[in-house]
Amino acid sequence: MTQPSAFSRASHRPRRYRFIQALACLLPGLFVGAAHAVIVESQAIQCEFTNGAGRPWVEVTPLTSSTPVGSVLWQRPVSLVTNYRYGGMTGSTPHELVSAAHWTAGTPLSDAVAPTNVSGIGFKITASSSDGILRDITQTSRPVAMAKVPVRYDTSAGQNQRSLMVTNYVQSLILTVPPSQLPSGELRVDRVDGSSALMLYSVDLLKDVASLGAEVSIPGNNIPLGICRRPYALMGPAILDMGGGGITVPNTCVVESYRTVPVKLGRFSLATFPSVGSTSAQVPFKIELSQCAVNARPKITFTDKIATHTDPTVLNLSASPNAAKGFGIIMINDLNQQRIRYDGSSYDMQRIGDSAVIPLRAGYIRTGSDAELKTGDADGAAEFTFTFP
Questions:
Q1: May I ask which residue range the UniProt record assigns to the signal sequence (predicted)?
Q2: What is the mean pLDDT of the chain?
Q3: Which structural domain range is residue 303 located in?
Q4: Same structural domain for residues 294 and 176?
Q5: Which residues contact 377 (CB under 8 A, 6 or more apart)?
Q6: How far apart are alpha carbons 220 and 217 in whole angstroms?
Q7: Is residue 255 in a domain?
Q8: Do 326 and 367 form a contact (C-beta atoms < 8 A)?
């Protein structure tokens, strides 16, 4: 993940409509009539589950040294598709295809949060019910109804047509311990641990037998043959694979977005720069992050906001009628005593307690010949980006 900010020598302001035209004509001796579709009640049979890839993980709360226990760290929406076929007319008896779910007995789940392979980061899955309510999937003796659709078909299309039901879920990664108690190294969440299985169902029931948010009983018969009543059991990595796989949770620090760090380099005469490469006295400053997670190892990258330079270690001056010419700005990394480069090079920041810092020095440098020199305003700006590998 990255976070851009800016550095400057001085502050700056810096939806088809488908048009269907029906044309009919009456000819002598020919009668043209319209067919009327009939919607009939049916049952759902031959259910098959399809895991469409979930959408990308989105950070909700950065993991820093001060992230509260119980915070949602990362989250993504996932859809489960149930494909089914109609099983014939049921007369005046309406049926519904009900999506239900629960965690089975096994490893106890506190607040519907299951453990993962990373100690201290838990997993929760929530269903977006068809009544608009978000319901956590909990550890219950029987599955709980999460969504339902009527099972009906259009006789003009024929009984053999297929249909589908989409059940939407949200997967969340939850911080379950203080950040300081997380394991060292990479926090790669790729499976749900424990002996409790996530059981998902698409079950054909008589209309209104199931109430959203209430437990349902799965009938034990198989009439008609192939009626939708079988479970979809997931454990371990398959739970996360339902949405496309896991994620590495980055250890981060608190970053103040688009923070400007002004550095006043002073005023100098041309005599200070007798030859190309001459530099002025350098002004120390630092870029610092706070509340870093224990394992955070931030890196910083600098980019010249005036990208016309020929030397990747020299920051160009802003162009204006009164701008100086024949000069640039250099920054020195005091951790290695080398010039900062503006070509995508990244630099480690030094960890000090729960902070991370890079100490720097900046000054002017002469880049032009005697004929190219001009006094004037000498402002420059660099954008810096933090990365938390």
A1: 1-37
A2: 88
A3: 260-387
A4: no
A5: 317, 318, 320, 322, 323, 324
A6: 9
A7: no
A8: yes
